[in-house]
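Example record used in the benchmark description.
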Amino acid sequence: RHRGRRIDEISWALRGESVGDHGYRSNVVSIRRGKAVRLENEVVQALRCPGCEGDLASREDAPDIEAEGGLRCVQCHREFAVANGVPRMLLPEMRDALSGNSAGEVDVRQIETAHSFGFEWSHFPDMYMEWSRNFLDYMKPHEASFFHGKKVLDAGCGSGRHAYYAAQYGAEVWAVDIGPAADVARRNTSGRGGVHVVQADLHSLPFAPESFDFIYSIGVLHHLPDPEGAFRNLLRYLKPGGEIKVYLYWKPEGRPLKRALLGLVTLARKITTRLPYRLVYALSFPAAWAAVVLFVWPYRVARHIPGLRRIAELTPMKQYSRYPFRVCVNDQFDRFSAPLERRYTKAEVEAWLTRAGLEEPDVRPNCGWGGSGRKPATAPELMNEMG
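Model output (C-alpha cells):
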C-alpha cells in the first residue's frame, strides 16, 4: 500500500482500466474505460519517442490494448499504450515505478508526487466559470487574443482547466501530466476541440525539440525534485522567439503574518505528507473552514470599509473570496499532501530566467511568482546545451 492507495490501481490506470474491471471498488481514483478512441494521424505525427525522439507509427495489434491500438517507435522499437484516448508516453522505468513494480533509478519523490496529484485531481475535478478569469490572471500580461493560432504546451495539466481555456481562446493545446490526472484532464476537455492530452514525464517529453510557440507550467515545478532542471528541459521544446510562463510558490518578503502561517504549515507538513490521502482529504475541510472564518470573511467585510481597504488587501488567503468553497479545500489538500514543496523569492525566480538566457524576463506577483521570458531567436550556447 502507498499512503492508503492500492498500487494495483495505478497499474490499471496506466493501462486505461478501471478497478471495477478487476472486481474491486476504488476508494481512491475512479478511472473508467470510455469509448475506444483512435488517435488521429496528425496526433501520431506530432508525437515522438520520449527515449530517442524517433518518429512513431500506429500499432493496432498491441495485445493489451486491442480497443485503441498503440504506438511504436520506428527507431528504437519501444511501444506505448493508448488508453481512453490518451497516449501513455512514459519510458518503461517510469511506467514501472508508477505501477509499483520497481523504482529503479527513478526518484521516489517524483512517484509520490504523481500519486498525490492523481488522488487530488480525481477528487477535485470540478470545472468552474471562475477558472476563465483565473487562467487569464496567471497569463498576464497576455490577454485571451494572445492564444489564437498558437501551438501551446501545458506542462503539468492536472485537471485540464487551463488547457480548456487556452483552447477556447484559439490555441492548439498539448496537455501533459505524469499520472492518472491525465484521465481527469481528458474527461474535462473532451468537449472542447483543440486539446490533446498525453501522459508523459516533464523530464522526457514526447515531442520534437522547438515544437511550441508558448509553454506554461502553473503550480507544478516547485513540486518536483529538480525544479530548475525541469524548467530548463521545457525550454528545449520552445521555438526560438517563443515564450514560457511558470508559476512558483513564493517566500513572503515583508509579510510577517503570512511568513508565520507558512512556518506553521511547514511544521504540519512533516506529519501530513505521511498520512493516507483520504485522511488528508478529510482534514482539508476543517482547514479550509478555518481559512474562511479567520481570513476570507473578515476580508469581505473590511474591503468595503474605506479606512480598512488598504489593510484588507494584505489579508492572507483573500483570493478564496473569489471562488467556491471547494477550491479552498482543494488547495489545502495540495498544501498538506504534496511530498515536495519549494518556495522562492523574486530574486531567485529572476535568476532562473537569467541563467536560462531568456529575453524580456518578467516576474510579477499573483499569490506566488509568475515568471516569464522569451527564447532568443538565435539561441545562446548555454540554451543549446540543455538537451
